[in-house]
Amino acid sequence: MDQPVVIPLTAPRLNQINSGQGIDAVANGACLAGVDAGVIGRVDSQWLETIADGLSEHGWITLDVQERLGRPLMAALASEVALLDRSDAMKSAGIGRGSDLMRDRSVRRDKIAWLQGITAPQAALFEFFEEIRSGLNRRLFLGLKRFESHYATYQPGDFYKKHVDSFHGRASRVVSLVLYLNDGWRAEDGGELRVFNRESDSEICGLVRPEAGRLALFLSEEIPHEVLPANRTRYSLACWFRQDEVPLPL
Ligand SMILES: O=C(O)CCC(=O)C(=O)O
Ligand SMILES: [Fe+2]
C-alpha cells in the first residue's frame, strides 16, 4: 500500500488518545513512559520564525529538536522504527505513486512504513507537525493543508541518489521535513543528507549527520538532496506538508 491516509489530528481524536483509548500497537510499552501526547509549548513563535526565515532565505534549514521533543518521545519513536524493522512492516520504497510507482534500486534502497498517528508517540509527533504546518502557513502563506509521514530504514550500503521531493507545478509536496533517530552516529557511519544549492545543483550547501534529534526542513520542489550510503542501519522519519486536500487522482 503506497497511498498514505493522513488526517491532521483533530481535538476529539487527540482526546481519545489522551484518555487512554488509543492503541499502542507497535510501540514498546516500556519506552512510552513519560511520553506526553500534549506538545503545547514545544513549538513557540520564535522557533517557527527561525524555520520560516531559513526556508525563505536559503530554501532549507537544520535544527536540533532533541530537547524540544524530549528524550522519552525520541526514544519511543526510535524503538517503534526498530521494532518495525524487525517485522515485515517496512516495504521497499518506490519512486512516484500508484500506477506510476517504480522500484528502482539504483536510485533508492530504503524501506518505508507510513505513520498513521495512532500510537501515543506518533500522536504527539503529529501534534508537533500540525503546529509547524499552521505556523508556516501564518508566516509564509503556503496554504499547507495536510501532511503525510513515514519511517525510513537504510541498511548498510543503502542510499538515495540526488532528487527533489516534488515536481514543479504539482503543488503537492511543498515542505519536506526529516527527523533522525540514531544515537551516537559517527562520521565514519556515513549516511549523511547532502543538500544542494537551489540555484546551482552541483554546489553542495550542507551535510546533515543523521544523529538523533536532528531535524532538516527544506522546500520540496526546490532543494535537490541525496542520502549518502550508510555504513550502519540508519533510522529516520520523513514528513511532507502538502497543498492538496486529497491525493491527486492517478
Ligand atoms: O533521510 C533523509 O535524509 C532524506 C530522505 C529523502 O530524501 C526522502 O525520503 O525523500
Ligand atoms: Fe527526498
TrEMBL record:
<dbReference type="InterPro" id="IPR051559">
    <property type="entry name" value="HIF_prolyl_hydroxylases"/>
</dbReference>
<keyword id="KW-0479">Metal-binding</keyword>
<keyword id="KW-0408">Iron</keyword>
<dbReference type="Pfam" id="PF13640">
    <property type="entry name" value="2OG-FeII_Oxy_3"/>
</dbReference>
<keyword id="KW-0847">Vitamin C</keyword>
<feature type="domain" description="Fe2OG dioxygenase">
    <location>
        <begin position="140"/>
        <end position="243"/>
    </location>
</feature>
<dbReference type="InterPro" id="IPR006620">
    <property type="entry name" value="Pro_4_hyd_alph"/>
</dbReference>
<dbReference type="InterPro" id="IPR005123">
    <property type="entry name" value="Oxoglu/Fe-dep_dioxygenase_dom"/>
</dbReference>
<dbReference type="InterPro" id="IPR044862">
    <property type="entry name" value="Pro_4_hyd_alph_FE2OG_OXY"/>
</dbReference>
<keyword id="KW-0560">Oxidoreductase</keyword>
<protein>
    <submittedName>
        <fullName>2OG-Fe(II) oxygenase</fullName>
    </submittedName>
</protein>
<keyword id="KW-0223">Dioxygenase</keyword>
